Amino acid sequence: MKIITIIGARPQFIKAAIVSRAIIHHNLNHNPPIEELLLHTGQHYDEQMSDIFFQQLNIPPPAWQFNCGQGSHAEMTGGMMIEIERALQQNRPDYVLVYGDTNSTLAGALTAAKLHIPVIHVEAGLRSFNRQMPEEINRILTDHLSDYLFCPTYAAIDNLKREGITKGVVHTGDVMYDAALTFGKIAEQTSTILSSMQLQTKQFYLCTVHRAENTDRQENLAQIIQALIEIARPDCPVVLPVHPRTKKQLAVWQLFSKIESNKAIRVIEPVDYLDMIMLEKHAKTILTDSGGIQKEAYFHRTPCITLRNETEWVETISAGWNQLASCRTDDILRCLANTLQQTEIEQYGNGHAAEKIVQTLLSTS
Q1: CB of 269 within 8 A of CB of 246?
Q2: What is the mean predicted confidence (pLDDT) over 252-268?
Q3: What is the set of active-site residues?
C-alpha cells in the first residue's frame, strides 16, 4: 500500500507525526509494509512554523516540498493543485491522506479526486456552521470528496450524516489527543520556556490570535488587545506568541503602542511545539481563536476562552472547559469571571486514534 500524505500547516505536522509513527510501528511488525511519502505544500514555510516541527517531532523528511504559502486563497490553492497533480501523476499512490481544514487539505483532496485516487480525510466531519470562515468551506468540500472519513468525535459523525455522508465514516478518536499524551511527556523533560521566561504555574495567561476574522478587522483586533491590557498584571502576565499575520496587522492598525502601555503583556515570536505544550499546560487560562488549541487546552486541563462566535469543538463547551467570548472586550472579561462545572470528554478516544486509522485502512485495502 502506498500513501501520499499532504501537509502544509503547523497543526498538520503534529497530526502527521502521530499517524506516521503508527505506520512505522506497523512496518516493524508486519508485512507487507505501508509506504508513506510526505508532500509539504509550503503553506507554512518559515523555520518557526515548519522546519522546527519536523526536527522536534521526528517527522520523516518530505519527498516533495513546495513554496505555495503566498497570495490569495485562490492563488495558494491553485498553485498547490498544480504541484500536487504532478507529484501524484509521477508516483501514483493507492491513497491520498489529508488532515483538517486548510487550503492544503482542499488542494490535496480535490486533485486526488479528479485523478480518481481515493481520499482519506483525518479529522472529518467538523462544522462551525459559519461559511464566512475559509476553513469551513475547506472542511465541507473535502468531506464530500473523501472515501474514508476518520472522525474525532460523534458530533462529527452526526454532521456528516445530516449531509448524507455515511459510507466510509469511522469514529477513531482524536489524533491530537494521541499527540498531547506522547509529546506532553517529552515537553516536560526538555522544554525550558517556563524558567527562561520566569513564569509560574497557573500564574499567567496565554493568548494566540491568527484567524483573518480577528486579525483583518481593526475593531476586532483592538477589542482583543484591550482585554489583554485589562487582565495583564505583573503577578499574572499575558504571554502573546505573535503569528506572522497578526504581527503584520498589529503594525497596520498601530496597536503595538497600546500593547506597550501594559508591560505585563509579553509579546514573543511563535514558539516551537514542545514549548507551546508547556505554555498550554501551565497557563491559568488560554485565550485563543485556534481550533486546535481549544482542544489542547482541554487535553492539558486548562480552561479556555475562544475569541470567536462559534466553535467546531462543541463538546469542549458542553464539558465546561471552553467558553465562546467573541472578540469583544466585555465578553472576554465576563467569561474570565465565570466559574464552570467541568466534566470529562470521552469521545476523543483513548490515545490510540492513529493506530485505529492504520488498522482500518489495512482491513479495507
Answers
A1: no
A2: 96
A3: 210
Supply φ then ψ for residue 232, to 5 degrees.
Answer: -75, 130
Give me the chain's average pLDDT, please: 94
- Domain residue ranges in the chain: 2-174+349-364, 183-347
Report which DSSP code applies to 62.
Answer: P
Q: Among 50-64, 163-177, 257-271, 297-311, which stretch is predicted with the lowest mean pLDDT?
A: 50-64
Cα 277 from Cα 341, distance rounded (Å): 24
Whether the predicted pLDDT of 312 surpasses 90: yes
Kindly report the CATH number that applies to the domain delimited by 183-347.
3.40.50.2000
Q: Quickly list H helices, the chain.
A: 10-29, 52-56, 73-90, 103-114, 134-145, 154-162, 175-190, 193-196, 212-215, 218-231, 244-252, 256-259, 273-282, 291-299, 314-318, 329-337, 353-364
Strand partners, 92: none
Going by C-alpha positions, the residue among 17, 340, 347, 312 that lies closest to residue 136 is 312
Closest CA to 180 of 356, 357, 349: 349
Using one digit for the tens of pLDDT, what is the confidence trace for 199-224?
999 999 999 999 989 999 999 999 99
2-174+349-364: CATH number: 3.40.50.2000
